[in-house]
Amino acid sequence: MTSLTANNRIFFFTATALFVLTLALSIITEYYYLLAIPFAVLLFQTGWVSFSAIFLLLIASIPFSTEVLITESLGTDLPDEMLMLLVSVLFFFHLINNTTAFFKIIWHPLVWLVLVSFCWSAISLAFSTHIVLSVKFLLAKSWYMCAFLAATFLVNSKKDELKRIATTLALSMFVCTMIIFIRHAALGFSFAGINDAVDPFFRNHVNYSALLVCTLPVWYGYWKLFPASQKLVAVVIAILLIALFLSYARGAWLALLVAIITGWLMMKKVVIRVLMITVMVTTIAVGWLAYDDQYLRFAPDQSETIFHEDFREHLVATYEMKDLSAAERFYRWIAGVRMIPDHWLTGFGPGTFYHNYKPYAVPAFETWVSENEEHSTVHNYFLLTAIEQGIPGLVLLLLLAGSILFYAQRLYHRIKDPFYRIASFITGLIFSMILTLNLLSDLIETDKIGSLFFLCIAVLVILDKKTAGKAENV
């Protein structure tokens, strides 16, 4: 007891001295961000004692984090990106004590596909048209992988830990949704006001709706696993569905529909077959559009492609291919497809699309927002991968996506434990949503959806390892 008290005194006086020192330095230098140092040390000490506590804090921070521009060319998401770095550092320290157990669990095809994809990104970097941008991309990718893939293997050793992660994410997003819902109500639930309502937690209503729709399967899991709470969970799901509708995000609505279809396909054990057919049909369609410049037949009338503040007009414009956002997507997609042949093997380099695409754009598809002051990308993650990392990068991404859905379906039919079985099913639904959302956006590299992407992989690997040999393979 005396030893413990002495250690506490040492820690207290050390922490106090550090705080006084950084306070003095921040006042003298006027670099007030130095005050974050003692709090970072405190978080590190907490994470060393209880790694899962810091990991859950990271999960809880995802919906509430905001994008902050440090310079004109450098931005970050606070606080979750700083917590990602902290979790990554803690992971390496904890790895020293758990090396054998950790390497046993990462010996899995999904993990190796992720690593091979990352290695190919590094090869693409060597041929990048903008090396600095590609290095930034890979650095960010590395701590996403550490924080949400590798670190999850250390935290998720028991069933209760998996429950805590799912509950933390679902409840955190529910609270965030309620705040946005109330703010949106003050604006009359208008289509024009939704982006103001989601600020500062989300860049726009697309990012908000993406994370919102991806948490719905978690609540479905609660509804299935806890019959005594079904009425309460049903009310929560109803509220979230209303919020999703009022997000006015067509991509998220489509993702929900695809998830429902994917769930049915998983039950029928045909999800991979349908995915392969979808890829083939898409390839044929793109080939047909490219042949003899068929795509020029669909060039929009610039005088009619405008932003509609009324959502009903917005939907009609989408159907008639006169919506501004849809027209701008076509503009960038066409430029992106035309870029691929010039660097088909290694791509232009990770994170370089914006700096290369305009010479490949077709003026006939130009819109009022084609100046692209936001420096946004091609709005299709699969196409973006082919552009920036070449055809091999795209093939690796498709292999990874197909393998994740394959394992989700396989585990759902193999596992007998009700909780693990539902967990595999939910993971498959969430991942199908992520794939759908990324057909219309580039969200894998964002904190809101990129985190879920790697969490889905980690959960499936853990479920496969925990249940291997406990049931017959299907």
Polypeptide structure, described:
By secondary structure, the chain is an all-alpha fold. It folds into 2 domains: 75 residues, no CATH class; 368 residues, no CATH class. It has 18 helices and 2 strands. It has a two-stranded antiparallel ribbon with strand order 1-2. A hairpin with a 5-residue loop joins strand 1 and strand 2. The longest helix is centred in the C-terminal third of the chain and has 34 residues. The chain is globular and about 75 Å long. The model has no long low-confidence stretch (mean pLDDT 85).
Architecture blueprint of SSEs:
Layout: H1 2-29, H2 36-49, H3 51-61, E1 66-69, E2 75-78, H4 80-97, H5 99-106, H6 109-126, H7 131-155, H8 159-186, H9 194-198, H10 205-225, H11 230-245, H12 250-268, H13 271-290, H14 311-319, H15 324-339, H16 381-414, H17 418-440, H18 447-467
Antiparallel strand pairs: 1-2
Domain O-antigen ligase-related: 236-398
Membrane topology: Multi-pass membrane protein
InterPro entries: O-antigen_ligase-rel_domated, WaaL-like
